[in-house]
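so my prof wants the structure for this chain in the tokens format not the other one, which i didnt know existed until like an hour ago. anyway here's the sequence
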Amino acid sequence: MARVIMTLKIMPEDVDVDLDALLDKIKENIPEGTDVRATEIVPIAFGLKALRMNVAREESMGGPDDIEEAISALDGVAQVEVERVSRM
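here's what i got, hopefully its the right format
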């Protein structure tokens, strides 16, 4: 079975959100069977930073909708954007 890798950009609600703590919460709350791969904190503007991460899972588990919903439901998250989806 093919695996899919997705690149997500998570925008915090405020510049004061601790992105390392947010990453820990994301890892605890993403759907089972979804593996967090590379992560990075990227500057956006005026002190605001975003969390960019790659997640991987089996293609049969479907698209990124459930991952987006799980992350969006967390405190401190303003927006989740899927930047890229591809097969591994």
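also thought this was worth mentioning. The two ends are 10 Å apart (CA to CA).
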